[in-house]
Amino acid sequence: MDGCTILFKPQNRIIKVKEGTSLLEAARKAGVFIDAPCGGSGHCGKCRIRILEGDYRFEKSLVLPDADFEKGIRLACLTYALSDMVVEPLEIKVTNEVLVEDVDPGEEEKGWIKKARRMMEDSGIEIKSGLEKIRLALDPPTLDDNIPDWERLCGGLATKCGPQSPRCSLDVLKRLPGTLRGNGFDINVILAREHGDCEIIDVRGSCADKPLYGICVDVGTTTVAANLVELETGKIKESASAGNLQMQYGADVISRIIYSTGEGGLAALKHAVVEGTINRLVEEMTARLNIYPEDIIFGVFAGNTTMAHLLLGVEAENIRLEPYIPAFRNHPPLKARDVGIRINPDAPVFIVPGVASYVGGDIVAGVLAAGIWDSDENVLFLDLGTNGELVCGNREVMVACACSAGPAFEGGEISCGMRAMRGAIDEVTIDGRTLEPCYSVVGGTKPRGICGSGLIDLVAAMFMTGIIDPKGKINAGLKSERIRFDDNLGVHEYVIASQNETEDGREITINEIDLDNFIRAKGAVYAGIRTLLKTLDMNVTDINKIIIAGGIGRDLNIKNSINIGLLPELEEEKFVYIGNSSLIGSYLCLISRGAREKAKHIAESMTYVELSAFPGYMEEFVGACFLPHTDIRLFPGVMKK
Amino acid sequence: MDGCTILFKPQNRIIKVKEGTSLLEAARKAGVFIDAPCGGSGHCGKCRIRILEGDYRFEKSLVLPDADFEKGIRLACLTYALSDMVVEPLEIKVTNEVLVEDVDPGEEEKGWIKKARRMMEDSGIEIKSGLEKIRLALDPPTLDDNIPDWERLCGGLATKCGPQSPRCSLDVLKRLPGTLRGNGFDINVILAREHGDCEIIDVRGSCADKPLYGICVDVGTTTVAANLVELETGKIKESASAGNLQMQYGADVISRIIYSTGEGGLAALKHAVVEGTINRLVEEMTARLNIYPEDIIFGVFAGNTTMAHLLLGVEAENIRLEPYIPAFRNHPPLKARDVGIRINPDAPVFIVPGVASYVGGDIVAGVLAAGIWDSDENVLFLDLGTNGELVCGNREVMVACACSAGPAFEGGEISCGMRAMRGAIDEVTIDGRTLEPCYSVVGGTKPRGICGSGLIDLVAAMFMTGIIDPKGKINAGLKSERIRFDDNLGVHEYVIASQNETEDGREITINEIDLDNFIRAKGAVYAGIRTLLKTLDMNVTDINKIIIAGGIGRDLNIKNSINIGLLPELEEEKFVYIGNSSLIGSYLCLISRGAREKAKHIAESMTYVELSAFPGYMEEFVGACFLPHTDIRLFPGVMKK
To answer: Which ranges carry the 2Fe-2S ferredoxin-type domain (chains A, B) (predicted)?
Structure first.
């Protein structure tokens, strides 16, 4: 037999693969999206697939429930085709096409955008993108004035903005003769000027005048969010977000880096984020605004260091190998054409520089947005996304670290976890008497899973009602039908929503493995905070403000976060939720050349603390893997309850 | 019927075309080279093709001899496929693969290269290419020294050559982490520095040290010639030349421009010169020298203005439409990647700037090589290539013009004409008594045709022996079997070589139409010289030196050229043959940044004279369309004979 043809329902996508190929690999090749947070190692249980036809070989996995197994459901990563097959993925039955969602910037973010703009102006940073439109009404050539087109253009520019040696791409040069003659030599020149360089991005007829657009993109490990912005006014015209299609190669940066080192891996990951995610967002936004992708003449991208490398297709392997060295912090001048972003091919691309391998440009953008660089007070900045990054400091000094929190706050590595999208339980309370839960769902639908803020509420409520002990073990002695023993996994679990309550007829539960994962995640963050403060010789009480960013969602309950020992016990008014600060920061970089300079300065001047190498960190972590903490003096208010 | 499949013998190339497509168009699409100097308009008679099988429609043409017609030979441009066909081109039965010939720079050129280098140094122009190799032995990173790769490289460069903001392509950045680690952070950085810009072309391990190579290319309308040069020493390591594959779209720039404006025309012409000609020369030269194309890190190109436009794929239409405006003189920074030249994709590309639409970078390169810019004496520079361009002047002032001489001096528009390659008759004498010719052939083989220098000798000999009168009419009353009447064309002809003397069994003859074309060509050059001198208020006798360049060949007979009135009557020692001055000039630009600056200066400062608009030019031209001239006082020496 030559190979196996796999038909994926319901999209009817077909792919031919070698015999013995896993169905997950086949799905990736077919462009069928299957979530695989663990990168296909068989331990997350998310890549469930229903076998409709065909022969296969499979490995059993504890994370696949017996009930599923009996219905012919398997894990795609552990099922290998032996013949032609017909299969149907279960978990997220969507192709990436429909992952685009409307995302109106929330009130917090809108507020922060205004605030950050004001802050920049107050510190003398001009809100000027560096992209400009210059009108040139040139004299048409004659036999006596036979200066060539390009020299005529350069001469015209010189009269408007002083002598220049402008650059332009061959594409722009090729369009020049036609544009000049098609518009009677009356044109608008779109220029990018930075560091004495002058680059012509586009030449357009002056009568067909259009605004200049730019995009800023937060390239998250899990979610990619973008704004389409009118550069001259700074107005956000469209917003959109989508799951990062790289998810099918693993939930966290480490599994992606590992995938990238295999044959074709780097190209597949680049393609997934550029073609499969960002370009679709651009398409969606330009279609809604009814403009051409070519009208977008500047792009700013912020992501963690691995995302920045994969965006450019630069090998990321050394990020994960000691001594953890990125290929670049700043990058040489690049254009959309080089990166494959389908906006104007000559649009400059700016990737917000990062601090180190595990504190990337998303954090620098966040710090830029949060204004720590301009603060007299001590600010603690927490980004609770797929990983947890922390920055602490003020105008004078800033230190940063990365906690190995994993993706728990975006629902990763939790059996019923999901990101904060429609169908996610985002708030939970539990009746202390009946032990019955009460929850709210994003979008007001039936629930499909639980997101970060919901998990924090849930764990806090289980702890406060005594369902779990400080170690996260379930008290099996309590009388509630919601507390059960899972024979498969050999652990107890708590049922949040029964089959008939959920959208897909699958129970939503949390088990002791989930709880353990979650507690380790929150412990990593808290230990990170303590360690970072130590490097500054500061105590928790020295913090004047805690700014929380990231995909954890704006419904984060601060009290509950303190109750479980994720956040330090401080007055509630000291906590602020900033939203997607990486997107806000990249927006600032889009509309202000000065902001880009400031971001570079922040990235260079911030001190990176490698937690794993820091004396005493492990003790801090172990101590924090308790609800709320082994050292109860740190949470006096919680212990009083 | 859906289409016709045309099989070209002897290469057995197959192409499917629409019914009614001309065989010339089919050959172009199939990549079969058929010479078509007239661009496929049916009047040059070069595109002869033998029909072996199939139905077709054709138009009769006077330029196709009856004997040929009876043998089933047709003109490819006037024959249209009506069914599947099998055909065999006659004229030049080669694909472009074998057009590459060894060309060792001739003695004259070698001498001029030395002379030009010395001249440049004497005027303070440094022989430095601007490309350099800098060795950096960087400290490998550690946990305490975790500067990213790119920043580490930039830092290292700064210590060696001062603070830089180097640019590099994404490709170079992608290779950086691997190159650094594969070589223990001990590397050679290949830099291009110009106008304060600093561009990293390549990063290589320091142990695998290789010379830096560059190529300079004369992109002629008919012939493309290239040198592969070791940049640091200036040594020419390889030379090669080939017919410009664009010839299949017409012999002169006007027919190429016309072709370029049709659908896909511009792309076809660009592909013909870049992929079909230059890249093959590069392949040939790198293979012979046993280096990689990527080892070539700089490329300099000189060609007429149309060639420069077509090389870049920039529309050339305005060159031919009044007021004759090129798209560019200088070009923005470009790389080999942009142009499609298959050397190192990051190699900078420099196209020698031209003066105007009909005095291009090849002439500027020629003037640079000939040293007019440094001469106290009055120099007349003639480039007798596919067109004829003239420059006259000295250190203080230079004027230039283009004669519409056509391709006669490279054998174009002459029935048995060919360029000065193997098989070309390059010298001719005629016995005044017997009227029998005596000739020499390039390569010492049987003749296939006659090249420019041979034509000059032939016409001069026919004129001096009275075979033709001053108007180029053949004296039919002379008793010689070599003088005949061609019934087809209705004109007389002179047989230079009979069927059994030639390589392909085809007679080599010259007829009165050829003679008329040739006399008009030489008339255009002489009229150009006279007009150019007028603009400088000079006489022929004010000229101290005449430098002759171009494809006419080093065997040009000066006396004969004066005898027919092509060149002004001056002492023979005032004439110098420089060879391919465009190639010499582009070589100088390759090895010297200062030479590039000088070329830019020459291009900007030279005055272009548009002959067609110059009062009195037409009278000059009409007067010069005589052997030697209507005004015999201009050629006292000739008239004495």
So the answer is: 4-93
| Residue the block writes with tokens 């518009």 | A183
What's the full length of chain A, in residues? 641
Phi, psi of B312 (to 5 degrees): -90, -10
CA distance B480 to B461: 15
A315 vs B: CB within 8 A = yes
Chain B nearest C-alpha distance from A143 (Å): 5
Distance from CA of B584 to the nearest CA of A (A): 26
Q: How far apart are CA A106 and CA A114, in angstroms?
A: 13
Of the listed ranges A540-544, A599-603, B54-58, B419-423, the one predicted with least confidence: B419-423
Chain A residues 321-360 within an 8 A CB cutoff of chain B = 322-334, 338-339, 356-357
d(CA B611, CA B629): 19
Question: Is the pLDDT assigned to residue B536 strictly greater than 60?
Answer: yes
Percentage of residues of chain B with pLDDT beyond 70? 96
Burial of B291 (0-12, 13-18, 19+ CB in 10 A): middle
The pLDDT tens digits of the residues spanning A441-480 come to: 988 899 999 988 999 999 999 999 999 999 999 999 999 9
**Cα angle at A121 between A118 and A122, to 5 degrees?**
85
Residue B373 neighbours by CB under 8 Å, 6+ apart: B367, B395, B398, B598, B601, B602
Contacts of B200 in chain A (CB under 8 A): 332
DSSP string, B100-141: -EE-PPPHHHHHHHHHHHHHHHHTT-----SEEEEEEEPPPP
CB contact under 8 A, A330 and B150: yes
Chain segment B88-129, per-residue pLDDT in tens: 888 553 334 434 444 455 666 778 888 889 999 999 999 999
DSSP helix/strand/coil, B607: strand
Report the residue of chain A nearest B144, measured CA to CA: A323
Contact yes or no for A150 and B327 at CB 8 A: yes
What residue ranges define each of the domains in chain B, with the CATH number in brackets?
4-93 (3.10.20.30), 99-124+212-351 (3.30.420.480), 131-205 (3.10.20.880), 371-407+519-640 (3.30.420.40), 417-504 (no CATH)
Compute the distance between CA of residue A581 and CA of residue A567 in angstroms, rounded to an integer: 19
Read off the pTM.
0.88
Residue B119, φ and ψ in degrees, nearest 5:
-60, -45
* CA distance to partner chain B, nearest, from residue A165 (Å): 8
Q: Is A312 in the B-facing interface, judged by CB distances under 8 Å?
A: yes
**Residue A289's CB: how many other CB atoms inside 10 A?**
15
B146 chain-A contacts, CB cut-off 8 A: 323-325, 356-357, 608
Query: Helix, strand, coil shares of chain A as percentages rounded to 5?
Result: 35, 25, 40
Nearest to A398 by CA among A521, A288, A547: A547
Q: Virtual CA dihedral for B160, B164, B169, B174, nearest 10 degrees?
A: 60
End-to-end CA distance of chain B: 68
* Chain B partners within 8 Å of A195 (Cβ): 165
User: Does B324 contact A143 at a Cβ distance shorter than 8 Å?
Assistant: yes
Which of A149, A166, A318 is nearest residue B327 as measured by Cβ atoms? A149
Q: Cα separation of B296 and B237, whole Å?
A: 12
